[in-house]
Structure formats: C-alpha cells, structure tokens
# Entry
Amino acid sequence: MQLLAIDTSTSAITVALHDGFRVTAESTTLDPRAHAEHLAPGIRDVLGQVGVEPGAVTGVVVGIGPGPFTGLRVGIVTARTFGYALGVPVRGLCSHEALAHQSWLAGRRGELLVATDARRKEVYAAAFSLTRAGSERMGDVIVARPADLPEHWRSLPTIGRGPLLYPDSLPGGIPSGGVGGDLLDVSAGALADLAARRWSAGEALATAALEPGGGFDGLEPLYLRRPDTQPAPPSRKSTLG
# Structure
C-alpha cells in the first residue's frame, strides 16, 4: 500500500504517505488563505521524501470537512483529480475524526470535543468518545456560535482552534503538553493512519466514482452551510421603451 492522504479543511495544508504499516512521510504548511498554492508542492514533497513515484500510489484519502468552502474544495478536487488520473480509489473521511484520532494516538481517553474555526464567529464542532479501542463520533458535526453549543459539549476537553479563538465559551482547551492536547489543525498523518486502520478492518469509507461524469457520489464535502459568495441573480432588463 502507498496511501496518499490530503486535508485542507483547516489552516493546515497537510499531506502524508502511509505504507500500510506506518506514516512514512508528512508535509504541513500553515496558511489559511493559500491552500491551492501549497498543496501540489506538499504532494511532491512527501513523495520525494521516500522516493515514491506518483504512479506507485495505490489509493488516496481526503478529509471531507467540515471546513470553509474554498480551502476544503481545493483538497477534495485535487484528490479526485489525482485518483482519476492514476485510476486508483479515492476515499473520504470526516476531518474532525482525524483530529480526534490524533488525540487518541497521543493517549487521550474519555469524552472530547473537536471545535475548529468556521469563521463568522462560529465553530465546526463534534463530540467524541475515546476508548481503548479507538475514537467514535457521538452524533453529527454542527456549525454554531461557541456559546450556543450544548452546555455539556462546552465543558469537555477540547482540541482544534476553537478554544484558542473563544476561550470564554470553550474553557476546556487542553494545555500545551497535556495528554492528547495542543492539537489545533488536522494532521494528514493522523488521517492516513485512521484510514489505513479502517481499511484493514474492512470498514467501508466514502468512495469517489472514477468514471468520467460520475459525479464522485459518496464523497460530498461537509460544508454545513452555503459558501460566502454566491452567483449574482440574473439581471432583469427594463421593459420601459
């Protein structure tokens, strides 16, 4: 296996390569406004770190969000294009699940809130249960103002940029050095590790169609709301003579 992992749902443009046993290479750049500029160099970097040619990649996994529209779209479109060009499967995972898994890998156990920046003074949030067996999402991912999240959620240990941006509403931010804490953005290495574990366990992941015009059913991004910009409505010509 040479699994390429991509995530652009947060401020991190992150790429990793997994050989079926471990993460062999990872590249991450922090830039919330330039996902398109950094993603292709990141892919070249991880492949170059271990001397893997693009044609040797056997599958792609991409974080499907939630995340801001433009940045998230960059990662998903790139993953779809890469997979189609090579004829390899493209699978998607919720990006918040990758963050929770990263905290689990670091040794965190118990309930956990993942809260990432949704802009507009809101966060994308989801609650997880971390046990010895792994991390499990408890319910849907939502977008809301931090103060409007369920009270129980706001009391949980929290990772993502939410506690950093809204400490009064999300006081459960795990201090730097805390077990499974200090995690602000998604790691493609954690995304790859989670996908590889689920793959080897025979669990189904959302898969993109490879046929031209197939619409990539099953790999829809978790935008959770409409994009910031919308097409202008059709103009109405004056009927006055």
